[in-house]
Structures are given as structure tokens and as C-alpha cells.
Amino acid sequence: MSLLAVEHLDVRHGLLQAVRGVSFEIERGETVALIGANGAGKTTLLRAIAGAHPIAGGRIKFNGTEVTRAPSYQRVGLGIALVPEGRRLFAQMSVEENLTLARAAGRAGAWTIEAVMEAFPNLRARRHARAGTLSGGEQQATAIGRALMTNPELLMLDEVSLGLSPLVVERVYASLQMLLTSGTTIILVEQDLTRALRVAGRVFCMLEGKIVLEGRAADLTREQVTEAYFGLGKAGREATLP
Asked: What's the pTM value of the predicted model, to 2 decimals?
């Protein structure tokens, strides 16, 4: 039985249909990269899975339980965690307070404040600092740590490298490497195609609310991914030639 099953999912922003009939399954322990241009529907899809955005049609099953209409806090209790784009920390609360609050809303498990500090050692000296005073990399580490404190079975990471310098991105991914190789089930939204293909076992590419390419990262060429990313088939490429 798959850990996550999404069936014919439709999600809207008012009159705009942001996700169109999306279906896929993710097995326990997989790392899946979700890629696509801005506006492709990636963030909306993750928010719908997390229960942060209402669903217009379709079904979501997690661990065999239908969660289509379940509120977000119930999904957290079942083991679904989202690190949102923009981090959305409680700026006036300390790093430790942000982590402790998440633990209260989550499940019992191995992730504690000390475990997060070990995974993200740059937070140890900043654990009592207000989240709003942290650097971008420290905020991202805190946001990931906050999600881990719920002891999730499925961790969804939305644009973890957004707005960070290349050096900071390398540090964040170095800390994430333990998760990527530990058997935690991960859906990763990443604009860096090279990095996405390197860390993921499978890749889903979205275009205009649909998944237009799906496959094992090792079997996909960069050309295939780029064509799907920009919606360029053979005819599309020829049309752009001078």
C-alpha cells in the first residue's frame, strides 16, 4: 500500500483552476522532486495535501485513510508536515519556542529539540534568539526543524533554497542529507533542476496545473525535463527557432 495516493485532484483559486486532475502515488521512503515553472501549481498541490487549501474535486489517501476533507491539524497528527514557501515562522518567538509549539501539535517520536540542533548545528547558538532576527538560512533550518518536531511520515519541502545564497543552500542541503538518506518520505519542490535530479528518486514535472512528466530521475535526461518544464515538445522547439 502506498503512503500517499492522490486521485484526480482539482484545486481552485476562485475561478482559476490551479491543479487539474492530478493523480499519483508515493511509496514509503521515497524522495520525489516536484518541479515546474512559477504558477505551475506546485505550491497549491502541496498545500492541498497538507489541508491548508480546500479541494474542489478528487481524493487524497494517506496510509490507507482518506483525508480529503480532514482539517490540517488532523493531517499533522496523522504524519503529514509541510515546510511552506516563505517559512512563516512566529517572528517574535524564539527558535526553541517555535520548535516546542510544533511538538505540541504533532506526534510522539524521535525528533526532539536536541535532535533538531544536531541536524542543524547552526541553530544551537541561536536557539533563544527571536525567529525574526535570524538569517535566511537559519530561518529555513528552523522551519524545517519545526516540521520535523511533528515527527512526520511525509515531509513536504516547498522551495527550501528560495532567496538563499548558493553557499547557504549548500549548508541547508548538507543538513538535509541525513533526511534524504534516512528513509523519510519527502516531496521536494526545487527550482534547481540539477539538484532536484541529484537528490530525488522520482521526478514529477507540473505545467499549467497538470503533471506532464513523471519518471525515475536516473532514467530522465535533462533535455526531457527541460522540455516538460517549459512545455516544449518537438513542435514547440521548432516554433522557437529563427
From this structure: 0.90
